[in-house]
Amino acid sequence: MNSESLYQFSTVTVLLMLLAFYGGTYLLTLGIRKKNEDADAFMVSNHRLGFGIGAASMTATWIWAASFYAAATSGFTYGVSGPIHYGLWGALMILFIYPFGRRFRKLAPNAATLGELIHARHGSSSQLILAASNVMGSIISLMVNFTAAGALVSVLSPLSFQTGVIIAGAGVLLYTLWSGFRASVMTDFAQLVALMAIAVVIIPAVFFSMGGPSELVAGLDNLTAEQANFFSMDAILNQGAPFFVAVLAYAIGNQTISQRLFAVNENHIKPTFVTATLGYGAIVIGLGMIGLMALTLGIEPLNGDMNNLIPQMVSGYLPPVFIGLFFILVIGSLSSTADSDLSALSAIMMADVYGKNIAKGKADPKRMLLVGRLTMIVATVVGIVFASFSLDILVMLVFVGALWGAIVFPVIASCFWNRVTNKAFTTSVVIAMIMFCLARFELLPLTGATGLMFELLASIGGGIIIALMAFGFLGRAMGLVAGVLAFVAMLVFATDFLRDYTVLLASLTAYGTSTLVCIVMSLASKEEPFDFDTIRERVGNYDDTDETASEKADDTPDSGVAGQPVGQS
């Protein structure tokens, strides 16, 4: 089935669906509005987010527009292992922040951002590096989601791409602006319930309309040997391994995840992250199976655009009512991530930029709220404008991914090792970014001694990733053993080979370089070891008056979205 066009709704129908979705979401947030909002609730729900809403919010946030299109593209490109590589490693990005997140919460229980913890540990320069990476990542995420909305509206209706972008941006801003993070997590819960209900219907409907399991098995003969191999080296090296490398980078560098870490009730951190991991993996792997099914049937993406694959399958095999459900499904997924990006950006500007660097720890909560809301408005406008330009998102994602990879070891080490210095943190990140660019864009020839140098750094990077993962769950000794074994294996595997896979080589180089520089400079430093107990004293809540605490207690809904007041440090 190769349709020359996709099914299109009328302009009125699409506008009514968008109005129903964003209007209903806005009405949902009216119930949690406060006449006098407070800064801590606006940023992290006063650290009292409940398990159910926390897990739902985490899952909905992580299932963004790219999850739909990229999962299907993975199945279509890499065959039987493609959906697993995309969904599994994406799910682990949520899981692997858990062990380190417990440490972050212990050190700074009243923080709103990871940057506040780093500011208390090192000072402004290291904090602003982390904040800048999060701002870039969230802006790009907004662009991606608004772009996806514009593309969806343009292919399923007579409306233009720009119209879809503007409606999505205005709709998300409308319901997020007043209550911030509280509105985001409340609507995430409703959006995830709708998303799961629709996905449970849509995915099997497409699957069986295309012929079901028997047709899938019969079509396996159309796959190449690599696509039919569950352990395809092509899939592992070009997708699985780069995604695996990104697991810790996104877990540590993404403020939307960190914000929920600091918001959820401390007793519920583990079940929240485990539940979100399972929920994300199940839904995204299911979406990837649609791409695999298209591959087995020999279907080609419309106009050669992989982003048309899922709309094409839904449009070609399902009746209009299911296409409408699919439309709401994608709009809901991209909106849940976009509102999380707005909340993350506002928290960064409120706490990291204004609270710690402009107000120097003497922030006015009312002014913080103004900063947060202005940030949301500006970010929405920037996201809409950049999305309208249809810029090359992948190029920018490369830099953000590299920056996040470069900060992983310095951030984690700073929270466990008292010898890490501010100079070691900042220098290691800068040098790692330079080395990443040299490798990724082949500014130096990846041959001879130069190629071996990058492969050595990449081997260190591979070893440190495995070491950190093992350390998080199994302790220091097992982490050290696993890291050494992984480093030796990488040396054998990578030498004179990894240079042919520049994306993977460059990403691992960023890890390895930042680790090596950070350790050497920290060991060479003459500074006194850091006292971790001082972090708790330096990071506190912003709304700490008795009057505010009383108001929080009075206004707290049973659902746990707003949260209850916490003790001050």
Automatic annotation (TrEMBL):
GO biological process entries: sodium ion transport
Keyword Transmembrane found: yes
UniProtKB keywords: Cell membrane, Ion transport, Membrane, Sodium, Sodium transport, Symport, Transmembrane, Transmembrane helix, Transport
InterPro entries with a match to the protein in the record: Na/Glc_symporter_sf, Na/solute_symporter, Sodium:Solute_Symporter
Catalysed reaction, written as an equation: L-proline(in) + Na(+)(in) = L-proline(out) + Na(+)(out)
Region (Disordered): 541-569
Gene3D superfamilies named in the record: Sodium/glucose cotransporter (1.20.1730.10)
Molecular function GO labels: symporter activity
One protein family per Pfam: SSF
Membrane topology, record value: Multi-pass membrane protein
Identification of the protein by name: Na+/proline symporter
